[in-house]
Amino acid sequence: MKPTLQSIPTTLVILVLSSLQQAVQAEVRLPGFFGDHMVMQRDVELRIWGWCDAGEEVTVTLNGKEATTRGTSDGTWKVILPAMEANSKPRTLQVKGNNVINLNDILIGEVWLCSGQSNMEWTVAASTNRDAEIAAADFPMIRHLKIAHRPSTVPLEDVSAPWTVCSPAVAGTYTAAGYFMAKNLHQELGVPIGLINSSWGGTRVEPWTPPTGFEQVPALSDIYRSVLGRTPGTDQYQKALSTFIKISEAWNQEAKAALSKVQPVSPSPTFPEQLKPFQSHQDPTMLYNGMIHALVGYPIRGVIWYQGESNHTEGMLYFEKKKALIHGWRSLWDQGDFPFYYVQIAPFQYGSEDGTILAKFWEAQAAVQQLPNTGMVVINDIATLNDIHPPNKQDVGKRLALLALKNDYGRKDVVANSPEVESIALADNQLLIKFRNTGGGLRTRDDESPTHFEIIGPGTRTFIPASASLNGDTVTLSADGVTAPVAFRFGWDKLAEPNLTGGTGLPVGTCRGGEEPDFLSLISIEDDYELVYELDLSKLQNKITYSIDRSGEASRFDRIGYLIELESETNGSQKLFVSMDAFTDDVKKIAVPQFSTGAFFQQPVNGLESYSTVSSLNREQIQGNIEFWSGNYATPNTANVPGASGAIYDFGDSMGEPLNGYGSMQVHDTDGKQTLFAINHWGAGDGADIGIGNSSGAHRDWTFSSNAGSYSGKSLKVYVRSKEDTKTR
Q: What is the pLDDT of residue 25?
């Protein structure tokens, strides 16, 4: 007869269940990414850890080395095995507690953490020459581990992922940048290579950064405070939550009293935004918590990083964020300043965005090399301008490998860095730019003259293309009409694919140097014009009050000029000076068109010229028009402005009522379908619309952008050229 639970003595059931419970509790355990086929770092002490019962004895053996410890009161254990040499013979890692774990096919070699966004996650199967690369990927000493996408509001102590052995069956799924680096290193060094791939397409740098990284960079103190404010247990969180609880308790008492008295009650307090946990995987610390924290302490040689497209509008602020990432990871890993090699993002057509935004970002990426033990790979020679993912990851991996070979593996004769500017000198009407790291002298990929150089000097108003010639490590620059060049820039556009390289073929990256003249000195405003109005645009309101108003001194003028200066985190410093033949002789009507001035203009203007730090806005002899009024307006092109749209707000809108309403102060390049500048809705203060060039939003003339508060600095100056001055000239 088959026994039933009822037929078994109760004491026996209790004993069985008790022993089962003890067995479950006693299971010694390793992190989920420790597994068969793992590669462990050579020549460093090996930290191995996990979980077990408090007091449980745990013994770890690998390659003839052994260490024993006991579980701590919190149920964790950790041992350190001595450093081991590279070994391609598979070993077994055994962990013995009340149970035994055997991990097989363990190799000792070089371990690299691969992180970033989609260009790091980009696979071998999506790369150039994919079929041949996959077919040839028979490298059993290369191993790969892919961490799953997992954001977290708190640091995760464990993640699970399997190691795979490189073969044609699986290599197509590997990080391409990491795989081609590993392939080069393995062939050069003959040792096992392990890749830990923790990457996620489209991600910013902030979610990969730990709190301590933000803490170490003063420029990011606002992010650090935000993180602390959302972290239970911090002083900021505890105080803010306590305050909210007191307010809520007081409201509860008020609500109960109102309920009993049948009286209305005010709405309940809203939970503070600063206490709400982060929600998006793009929020600060979210990917560090979920995809990096559990790895911290696993010995690595270093990190390779390919990211930046999602932060590319931030200029030098990105340098601060990279400092936070690198300092944060290094301090937590406790391996000193381990190598951190990264890829400068490629030229790409970022829509209608000004081309210099990406150039300034490249400059910020290059600045990261100021940090110790870092190196940057330049790839402006292998870009795909209409694809943000250049498929040639072979050269990316090879260049990353060169940095490691030179700096970490003793190959001092290897040329690993792209040429960089060493000095600048003026000789007659030429600039001499000397480079270092040239690998035997500069050359060009196509044997033509170097491209994408520009110079600037007194009287040029802006950078102009320069003729360039090579002599060893030096580039000589000159241009017609530039008698005393003072500064240069190279590859200073999002679509720039310059041909200049070092002797080994490594491309020269975007750079600039010299003392760039001040914008105002280049356009000689003060020599030709008189300042009439100055307005701090941070003080916009319905009734405009100018910090300077000299309208009583200006009577006869034949030209009007507008200088707009904007500072923002996204675009940096932007300046624009537009001038035109006078469209009125009433000086009261040339500034912000308030209703009280009676300024209503929708008309073409003559002699329009535009000079700007935004290179695409530098034009003369422009066919332009203005839209100056204090009232509302609509999209229909009732004025029949050539080329204007009737469906969006642009350079051909129609005035409407009320006449003292939204407000428009806009100057346009009509032929170019380009807004030169716009100041709209000034009565909204920080909610006003302000912009230089076309808006990238729904409406080209910045209508409804409500972006004035996004500028850290913003000003308007209005100038006139007097008729008397014209006659004397």
A: 55
Nearest partner of 533 among 720, 680, 681, judged by Cα: 720
- Whether the Cβ atoms of residue 107 and residue 90 lie closer than 8 Å to each other: yes
Report d(CA 585, CA 608) in Å as an integer.
17
Element holding 92 (H helix, E strand): strand 87-96
Q: Is 209 exposed, middle or buried (0-12, 13-18, 19+ CB in 10 A)?
A: buried
CA distance 287 to 204: 10
Please give the distance of CA 324 from its chain centroid, rounded to a whole number: 13
User: What does the alpha-carbon distance between residue 665 and residue 130 come to, in Å, rounded to a whole number?
Assistant: 55
Label residue 726 by pLDDT band (50, 70, 90).
low
CA–CA dist 307, 326 (Å, integer): 13
The two tokens of residue 26 are 């006693």
Residues in the chain, how many? Answer: 729
CA distances from 634 to 637, 647, 651 (A): 8, 9, 11
- Please give, one letter per residue, the 3-state secondary structure of 240-282: HHHHHHHHHHHHHHHHHHHHHHCCCCCCCCCCCHHHCCCCCCC
Q: Is 192 in contact with 165 (CB distance < 8 Å)?
A: no
- Report d(CA 33, CA 196) in Å as an integer: 10
- Reduced to 3 states (helix: H, G, I; strand: E, B; else coil), residue 211 is helix
pLDDT of residue 597: 94
CA distance 630 to 596: 9
Which structure tokens are listed for 296?
A: 């911290």
pTM reported for the whole predicted model: 0.85
